[in-house]
Design brief:
Helix content is about 30%, strand content about 20%.
């Protein structure tokens, strides 16, 4: 047979192990994996030699905010720029959110708005819904969203006046989503604690970006996570906690799993590589995010729990504001847009935190970078290098190191929280849907070829933290295996 692409002499890393072989790609799918000792390989339109490289599944970033409007602010990227940046960073699938701008916009309208923008994407895109306010039409809207292939819905426990859902709304969303077998994403900070602490900071005249950790203390996250776990237990909902920053929050999730709940824990690279001393730096606005970056002890605790399989995914929480937007309100965190650009740096930042510094196996990195985000979010053809899966592949030289220059990245902004840091694990070559889109640093724009991916409910079992086994079998057999 004639392959479109043949990747030879590959060290293939999946979540469940590493093998050596040659990868055949046809029609955007991995159609064959040949054992490394096979020398009589079939012809291909193009051959890429992966000698000395790791070949891993294309990344799945299940927590991105693209073209997002929140209050007075609009993020600066488009689907074109965000997905171009994703590909430069080894991520070949993103999942964005259709979040109502405020309580006056319906969940379905917000989602349809995002569906209308996906056409510009350079890689595949999934979507989550979101609910801010409950009314009698919401159940029907959630059903229509599920019919469109969006079974997951996000709720915020804080951010009064913009994205926050009240307690009644959250309980009803969980009940409805549980009935449909979907997944509830939760931004979990205890609103009353945040409001009280922020008011105290303002009264003390300490409300600038330097005081962000003081205004949103760790206990606000820990308390909210336990409260939401109780509501999830009551309603039977499967829940996914975004951007967890404290070991205590992750521990609460672990305990809930031990009780039989379906619950997932996510963290982000900036919570693993940075600590709260960044708020005393020359440009603290570069680190305006909620929850804030925590003490070094929290970062160490998160890495420890990653090593023990208690964190399921590492996502970017990509939000693309520039320094001018952040500096405008640097003296009042109540008015500043929060969120960090990260879709392009997720791979090297996570690789550096987990593998280079943390000493974890590359297989564990692959698990949280690609395999489990795909499984949890019902992306059944993503996150694995194996016959029958999408040909989303990344070649990486683990020894290569680069210094981050946010202004030179492709995210639509002028900074990165990792500016000046030396990171390893950058992609050398990226294949998306069978197309070579990044080749030794040269980007080949595939055009608006990204697909909207309808999804199923959360995948059951796990390759890691939920204690199951990976739901696939990599096929590095001594013979050709064709789809």
């Amino acid at each position: 047979m004639l392959h479109d692409l043949l990747i030879t002499h590959a060290t293939i890393v999946n979540a469940d192990g590493t093998t050596r072989g040659h990868i055949g790609v046809t029609g955007g799918t991995v159609t064959a994996i040949y054992a490394s000792e096979v020398t009589d390989l079939p012809p291909a339109v193009r051959t890429v030699d992966a000698t000395g490289m790791l070949v891993i599944p294309g990344g799945v970033d299940a927590h991105c905010h693209v073209e997002q409007v929140t209050g007075a602010y609009r993020s600066l990227d488009t689907y074109e720029t965000a997905t171009t940046a994703a590909l430069h960073g080894g991520t070949t699938t993103i999942v964005d959110f259709g979040i109502p701008a405020d309580a006056s916009e319906s969940p379905l309208a917000a989602l349809r708005n995002k569906l209308g923008l996906v056409d510009g994407a350079r890689c595949d895109v999934g979507l989550h819904g979101a609910v801010v306010a409950w009314d009698d039409d919401v159940p029907a809207q959630l059903q229509e969203m599920a019919d469109l292939g969006v079974p997951s819905v996000k709720v915020y426990t804080t951010n009064r006046g913009t994205t926050m859902a009240d307690e009644d709304t959250i309980l009803r969303v969980m009940k409805e989503t549980a009935r449909r077998g979907g997944l509830v994403y939760v931004h979990s900070e205890h609103d009353a604690i945040v409001v009280d602490r922020t008011a105290a900071c303002a009264a003390d005249g300490r409300i600038g970006i330097e005081d962000l950790p003081r205004s949103r203390p760790e206990i606000s996250e820990d308390a909210s996570v336990r409260e939401m776990l109780a509501v999830a237990a009551y309603t039977g909902a499967a829940v996914y906690f975004v951007h967890q920053t404290t070991p205590a929050a992750v521990e609460a999730v672990r305990e809930a799993r031990a009780r039989g709940q379906i619950v997932y824990s996510e963290t982000c690279p900036h919570y693993l590589l940075l600590d709260e001393s960044v708020y005393a730096s020359a440009a603290p606005e570069k680190f305006a995010c909620c929850p804030p970056i925590r003490p070094a002890s929290a970062a160490a605790g998160l890495l420890n729990r990653l090593a023990r399989g208690q964190v399921d995914t590492v996502s970017s929480d990509h939000s693309c504001y520039d320094l001018a937007q952040k500096q405008r309100s640097r003296h009042d965190v109540r008015r500043m847009p929060h969120g960090l650009p990260g879709v392009e740096t997720r791979m090297p930042a996570a690789f550096t935190a987990l593998v280079t510094r943390g000493g974890l196996p590359v297989e564990r990195f692959v698990e949280v970078f690609a395999t489990d985000p795909a499984r949890i979010n019902g992306l059944s053809t993503k996150g694995v290098v194996a016959v029958g899966y999408d040909a989303d592949l990344v070649l990486v030289d683990p020894a290569e190191r680069r210094t981050v220059d946010g202004a030179a990245l492709h995210q639509g902004t002028d900074f990165s929280p990792f500016d000046g840091m030396m990171l390893s694990g950058w992609p050398r070559t990226v294949v998306s849907g069978g197309r070579v889109v990044l080749d030794e640093g040269t980007f080949h724009d595939p055009g608006p070829v990204g697909r909207f991916l309808p999804r199923t409910g959360p995948g059951q079992g796990s390759s890691g933290s939920n204690g199951g086994t990976t739901r696939y079998r990599a096929r590095g057999a001594a013979r050709t295996v064709e789809a």
